[in-house]
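Ticket #219: bound-state structure for erythose-4-phosphate.
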Amino acid sequence: MKFFIDTANLDHIKEAKDLGILDGVTTNPSLMAKEGITGKENIYRHYKKICDLVDGDVSAEVISTDFKGILREGKELAEIAENIVVKVPMIKDGIKAICEFTSLEIPTNCTLVFSVGQAILAAKAGATYISPFIGRIDDSNWEGMQLIRDIFEVYSMQGYDSEILAASIRSSMHIVDAAKAGADVVTCPLDAILGLLKHPLTDIGLAKFLEDHKKAEKS
Ligand code: E4P
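RESOLUTION: The complex was predicted; output attached.
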């Protein structure tokens, strides 16, 4: 399973990259706004910085919601760097645009996927990635991870090529569950990635090893 970081924060991206396990980045308009990046030029410049920082795919989301606008914007975003993936919302014009991007060989990430039916449509359109939003489904009192299991089952059965990118990840446990459910990629905040490192028995075990080593050195 590939690890993407879900942020537009350059320090977080650098920290995950330094860990050596980073395969890519996803952003969205809310995450860009959170970093205080506004205005098309600044936003595109920020995408360029992210793309220069990582070797893997960087999802950059369109703001347009009509077919022509999505196409124009997607083509502009794809010009920023070779590793840009155009992120397109799961709407009618979005699906039409993904079909067009597929024929132009521009990679896409179909975002805001909340059902197996949507995942099937996005796969038929040729999306490179499809992003089911696990945390947001959990927030509405349904089981988000079941959607990953169901999409994995259908994609395996039908031989669809789109990669299942588990998004809206809120915890380290979500990452483990996404791996068990068959996700190809997980995109998560830095905290959730770093949380995977933690186990109290590791800390206790390491303290004991170091203590025994120290005692032996003294004797
Ligand atoms: C996915 O690509 C989205 O950027 C993201 O995972 C949404 O997560 P949220 O529900 O925590 O905003």
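RESOLUTION NOTES: Residues 147 and 176 are 15 Å apart (CA to CA).
TICKET STATUS: resolved
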